[in-house]
Amino acid sequence: MLDCFDGCSGNPECRNRCYLRISPMATTEMHNLGWCVYQKCNNSMSSTACVESKCGKYLGACKETPAGDKDCSYVLDCQSACKAEDSVCRADCFGKGTAKAQADFETLRSCFESKCAAVPMLGFEPSCGWDYCAAALEVCAPPANCSLLGGDCPVGKACWTSPTGKYDCFATEGIEEAGLCPLIPVVERACEDGLQCVMAGDTTECRRVCTHDAQCASDEACREAEIPGTEGWGYCDCKDDDGDGFCLAVDCDDHDPKINPSKGEKCYDGKDNNCDGEIDEGCEPSEGEPSVVEGDDPPGAELPIGCASTGGAPPMGSALLLLASLLAVVLTRWTARS
Fold it and tell me: Are residues 31 and 89 in the same domain?
């Protein structure tokens, strides 16, 4: 940049062309140098002693330095550790990268500044970077290739899929298993590492990620997640062997989809259809069905000799006894008359 300016001999159009040819980072460094010279050296670059003594750190950032041997990931991490106003620190980090690393970093920086109104090492919204600069971001911040099952990410981060289909560690709110999670998290991830936010009835909860039943509790099964980018992965949910939407804890017959708490009671089938602990409750006697009314003798019950069942003919033994009694009364009256 300085060499380009020196060749312009003060021509404004030439200097504008110099600005257009340099990177956004170089433009920032040049502005810092120009402001320092304006304030401390009477806006005169010709005063070499003043510029070097009072604006040395900005001058050093604008001087060309040989390429180093570090990759773009190093440059990004190194600049992230610099203070926002320390352009010399950032220039030093940039200079340690290889020519390719410097080019990759400038591609990433340019994308962030144009799409996200930020620079990648001074704080930015990660989702914006993934939405617009995913390819450049993966070059300078390679994915961790972590497992969704958890255990590969540092504290405060959780493994999930990136927009490019890679597995990486993202910032997380750290919501624990079975905790309620928002449909739209305020950070990249809501649940802690190894969990995913899924629909659970009328709410959304953090559930354990799994690939097969053995990774879940004994009363749970691994259910397919049906979330884009997580093919082959699922989450642990309560067992529902008959697939009627009711788990074993509330389904009194988890092998019959026609029996669960949502069903109505079916009379006279000998089953608790609605899982309320009762059978045939509220049912009216149907034709041909025996009915036992409180206080009556059950149909077909044996009665003592001399007793008659309600609504039926007296037993034979009772009839003979009754006839004998009547004859005795008649004979007694007849004898008394004679």
Answer: no
In a domain, 320, yes or no: no
Output the pLDDT for position 127. Answer: 63
Whether 153 contacts 144, CB under 8 Å: yes
50 and 85 together in one domain: no
Pair 9, 57 in one domain: yes
d(CA 223, CA 238): 9
Q: How many domains does the chain have?
A: 3
Asked whether residue 82 is domain-assigned, the answer is yes
Q: Is the dihedral of CA 176, 181, 185, 188 positive or negative?
A: positive
Q: C-alpha dihedral over 74, 78, 81, 87, to 10 degrees?
A: -150
Q: Are strands 189-191 and 167-175 parallel, antiparallel or unpaired?
A: parallel
* Alpha-carbon dihedral 196, 200, 205, 208, rounded to 10 degrees: -40
Count Cβ atoms below 10 Å from residue 29 Cβ, excluding itself. 24
Residues 27, 18: Cα–Cα separation, whole Å:
10
Query: Given pLDDT bands bounded at 50, 70 and 90, which one contains residue 287?
Result: low
pTM value > 0.70: no
The predicted-structure confidence for 1-18, as pLDDT tens digits, reads as follows: 555 665 555 666 666 666
The more confident residue out of 287 and 79 is: 79
DSSP state of 28: H
- The tens digit of pLDDT for each residue in 199-210 reads 877 789 999 999
Contact, 58 vs 29, CB < 8 A?
yes
Count Cα atoms within 13 angstroms, Cβ side, for 129: 22
Of the candidates 266, 240, 236, the one whose C-alpha atom is nearest the C-alpha of residue 255 is 240
